[in-house]
Amino acid sequence: MTAEIQTINTLVVGAGQAGIAASEHLGQLGVEHLVLERQRIAQAWRTGRWDSLVANGPAWHDRFPGLEFKGDRDGFPGKDEVADYFEDYVRQIKAPVRTGVEVRRVTRNQGRPGFTVETSEGVIEARNVIAATGPFQVPVIPPIAPAAPAAPADGGLLQIHSAHYHRPAQLPEGAVLVVGAGSSGVQIADELQRAGRKVFLSVGAHDRPPRAYRGRDFCWWLGVLGEWDAAIAKPGREHVTIAVSGARGGHTVDFRALGHQGITLVGLTESFADGRVLFRDDLAENIANGDANYLAMLDAADDYIRRNGLDLPEEPEARRRLPDPECMTHPLRELDLAAAGITSIIWATGYRVDFSWLQVDSFEPGGKPRHHRGVGHEPGIYFLGLPWLSRRGSSFIWGVWHDAKFVADHIAKQRRYSDYDAAARSR
Ligand SMILES: Cc1cc2nc3c(=O)[nH]c(=O)nc-3n(C[C@H](O)[C@H](O)[C@H](O)COP(=O)(O)OP(=O)(O)OC[C@H]3O[C@@H](n4cnc5c(N)ncnc54)[C@H](O)[C@@H]3O)c2cc1C
To answer: Which of 151, 226, 316, 402 shows a CA-CA span of 20 to 30 A to 329?
Structure first.
């Protein structure tokens, strides 16, 4: 006897914010669907972040329209509050989420529409599949990392990705090199230095918006200036990281302040050899470009205030700059790891996606998803949550909600064609 195969109109893979947003819109359109999640709802927020992480945007902004965070709307919810928020959301919209089920393979049916979905709990047939498996799936450590580090106890190095950093006490005694100065690297370096560690922070290209300016958070500014909705990154800036922080009530990331605080800033990490690490001579340039990005946002905000006659307090001190710390005026080009007492390296160097389970014709030759605003090249396949899926905000909480609406609308539109076909056949 063969096991009965469940059929469903739309299968959503992943119950992070992207999958939950998809479920909300599909539900509103009356599209029969199921969300499968291999772990728990909002798992990435639960365990894929360090203990002290708070949202990078304020509670009023980093949320779905249908539910507010409990507590201060200008505050920055902790990672577990964000996970709780999504669990509450699933209950509120009664999303059909099944947890603990992994999707292992999706293939296109031959000679009939839809897809065969192999899961850890059997096979499902779905007319549509939405891949909502996250923008940040597989931590990336660049190939320059020193090979096969020995255990710290043997005088070797502990190397971890920022996805596996939880708290300072997890690292062996000693100094730490943090590679990457986006929001993760900067916040982790700051936390470690405040916990009494000697920290070296390798700074590459970054954007550095002010936390707030003239009484408004940068999330508000990017919204009114249309930046969250920008459809394409400025050429050459697609992978430029953004350095912001909601930690300690929220503050502007200021590399000079970090330098004065005791963190040794260095340029891009270039290579490791014979126990030494080499840094590129680009620290001043990277910080200058970050400053230019910061000042451009102040200018755009001032201009917006002027044109719209807004009554927001002047903030000339936002343009004052601290003197360059010693590590900027005399940047280190290389470091003997042992002599510097470095026992850990934290790679805050980003992530890649893994769609090996999705075996359909919706990828570029290099493996990049092929889609338009989340609608896959293969009819019936959809993507959500990817960086720049339709706009700058696509991988963020508020952005994915709007992308999910577009994708759900597309599925509902397509359903009308197949309904017509089914009705015509039965006449
Ligand atoms: C350190 C950090 C801080 C961030 N801070 C913010 C912030 O403050 N504000 C903001 O808006 N955004 C923030 N983001 C960006 C983004 O909001 C998060 O990465 C968010 O988790 C993305 O949601 P998602 O649903 O797209 O993906 P995920 O949250 O990664 O969810 C994908 C889900 O799919 C499941 N899954 C994967 N493969 C399968 C499979 N084969 N079968 C079944 N289930 C599967 C996973 O278990 C996971 O639960 C941050 C990201 C990082 C890394």
So the answer is: 316
Note whether 153 and 283 are same-domain residues. Answer: yes
Q: What is the DSSP code string of 142-196?
A: -TTSPSSPPPGGGT--EEEEGGG---GGGSPSSEEEEE--SHHHHHHHHHHHHTT
Question: What's the pLDDT tens digit per position in 266-314?
Answer: 999 999 999 999 999 999 999 999 999 999 999 999 999 999 999 999 9
C-beta 49 within 6 A of ligand 1: yes
Is residue 396 lining ligand 1, measured as CB closer than 6 Å?
Answer: yes
Domain total of the chain:
2
The rounded Å distance from CA 6 to ligand 1 centre is 27
pLDDT in tens, 164-173: 999 999 999 9
Structure token pair of residue 20: 């939950």
Q: What is the CATH number of the domain that holds 153?
A: 3.50.50.60
227 is in which domain, residue-wise? Answer: 142-347
Q: How far is CA 359 from the centre of its chain?
A: 24
pLDDT greater than 60 at residue 231: yes
| CA 43–ligand 1 middle distance (angstroms) | 8
| Residue 1 falls inside a structural domain | no
Helices and strands counted in the chain (H then E): 9, 24
Distance 136 CA to ligand 1 centre (A): 6
Alpha-carbon distance of 348 to 359, in angstroms, equals 30
